[in-house]
Write a structure and sequence with these properties.
There is one protein chain. This protein has seven helices and 24 strands. The protein has about 450 residues and is of the alpha+beta class. It folds into two domains: about 210 residues, Probable inorganic polyphosphate/atp-NAD kinase, domain 1 (Rossmann fold); about 160 residues, Tumour Suppressor Smad4 (Sandwich). Strands 12, 13, 14, 15, 16, 17, 18, 19, 20, 21, 22 and 23 form a twelve-stranded antiparallel sheet that branches. A four-stranded antiparallel sheet has the order 4-5-11-24, with no helix packed on it. It has a four-stranded parallel sheet with strand order 7-6-9-10, with helices on both faces. It is globular, with a radius of gyration of 26 Å. It starts with a strand and ends in a 12-residue tail after the last helix.
Length: about 450
């Protein structure tokens, strides 16, 4: 460790000079790779009897926390520093993870290492290390955080603080960050930790001394929530998206959604996939097919500015502005919404989530390419004649009776819990307060 020597000189009454030397340690302003961190802790999700939300339970305390912020906002920047310093000081076993450019900006504010992915192409993906994601911003920040796990079949829980322009998806206000993080951190922890058998220790990956899996819980002062007061989870379904050539060959996705080694696999989207004519003046000619071969059926060949396939979460976004239905996020479904169709009889559709929807570019399409965007990120290379986008809903649970099913997909969104709020439908509150659902025109509501 670097040692910095400093000397103080004091002159006495007799003009004698005394020299005193001491040492200080240089701050550990380091950026490390998340490859050094311990493996991800996968929580469990349990169905509850009183309502449709799930209960979050950690098998051991979460340690690797990914923080995602809204860019270009000084208030959010200051809030992030306050928040992360509180987390590290109160829960010292945690490790702070940031995106690379954020880590470069903030690491000098900490006297301990921060972690991020490598930018040299040999990355350990976030989903192998991150236990919990926390966002500070609006709905766009949550979508961006979800896109960091677009190639992952399993997403860590997301704790969101509303600090953006629109906070329909954000559940918590930032002044509540201490309470909110504590509730999530101890969710599922035993009420009496001293009565639990000692678990095996695991390596910290270079972040500090070894610790037991209950060490982070037993060191916390104050009341534990207990297994009956777990944090509540709203499981948001995603879309599974594949792109195919005119010959039926699966094509790789582009960054930031590209798989490792450029593998040609599906990616996941929280809101929607959009096909649009872009800047070209000609309407798009797209055939919509429903189902899987050999039982695939042609719904229609439509002419429009574009088409949206959305999740229930995305039903309050671009789809809503295009005349689509508002769908509760617990309804397992897909939304097919035309954008400015030439035929007024083409209305939005709501389909079962397990329906495979194929959007094929027809030869009659006069534009050279059709633009494709996934959760607002446009693909550089568009679609040409004969190419297809195939979309289906993501499977988020195994088959079986309620209480006996395993939850393994989706985006686990942490909502308020405890007391009367356990029975609240926060989605309904969002419709009334943010979207002003059925708000009286010309009157004070």
């Amino acid at each position: 460790m670097t040692r910095v020597w400093r000397c103080l000189q004091a002159t006495g009454a007799a003009s004698r000079t005394r020299t005193r030397c001491f040492t200080t340690s240089a701050p550990r302003q380091e950026i490390r790779s998340i490859a050094e961190l311990p493996p991800r802790v996968n929580p469990g999700f349990t169905e509850t009897k009183r309502h449709d939300l799930l209960a979050l339970g950690w098998p051991s305390p979460p340690r690797n926390i990914l923080f995602v912020r809204k860019d270009g906002d000084r208030v959010v920047q200051e809030a992030l520093l306050e928040y992360t310093k509180h987390v590290k000081s109160t829960y010292p076993d945690t490790n702070l993870v940031f995106e690379p450019y954020v880590a470069k900006q903030l690491h000098e504010y900490f006297d301990h290492p921060v972690y991020t992915i490598n930018e040299n192409g040999s990355n350990t993906p976030y989903h192998e290390k991150v236990d919990l994601t926390s966002t500070l911003g609006g709905d766009g920040t949550i979508l961006h955080a979800a896109s960091l796990f677009a190639t992952a079949k399993s997403v860590p829980p997301v704790l969101s603080f509303s600090m953006g322009t629109l906070g329909f998806l954000g559940e918590w206000k930032f002044p509540e960050y201490k309470r909110a993080f504590r509730e999530v951190y101890v969710s599922g922890a035993p009420c009496h930790l001293d009565d639990q058998p000692p678990p095996a220790a695991y390596s910290d990956g270079g972040a500090g001394p070894q610790t037991s899996s209950t060490g982070g819980w037993s060191d916390i002062k104050g009341k534990k929530m207990g297994r009956s007061r777990n944090s509540r989870i709203l499981m948001r379904n995603r879309l599974r998206i594949g792109i195919f050539s005119s010959t039926g060959e699966r094509l790789p996705h582009e960054p930031p959604f590209a798989h490792a080694d450029n593998q040609c696999e599906d990616i996941f989207a929280l809101n929607e996939v959009l096909l649009h004519r872009g800047a070209l003046p000609h309407l798009a000619h797209i055939t919509i097919l429903i189902g899987s071969p050999p039982h695939q059926k042609t719904l229609t060949t439509a002419i429009a500015d574009g088409f949206l396939v959305s999740t229930p979460t995305g039903s309050t976004a671009y789809s809503l502005s295009s005349g689509g239905s508002i769908v509760h996020p617990l309804v397992s479904s897909l939304l097919l919404t035309p954008i400015c169709p030439r035929s007024l009889s083409f209305r939005p559709l709501v389909l079962p989530a397990n329906t495979l929807i194929t959007l094929r570019i027809e030869e009659q399409n006069r534009g050279k390419e059709i633009e494709v965007s996934v959760d607002g990120v446009r693909r550089k290379e568009g679609l040409r004649t004969g190419m297809e986008v195939r979309v289906a809903g993501e499977e988020v649970r195994t088959a079986g009776a309620p209480g006996a099913r395993d939850w393994f997909g989706g985006v686990p969104s942490i909502v308020r819990s405890g007391g009367a709020a356990d029975g609240e439908d926060h989605w309904v509150g969002g419709l009334n307060s943010l979207l002003k659902f059925n708000y009286p025109f010309g009157e004070d509501g």
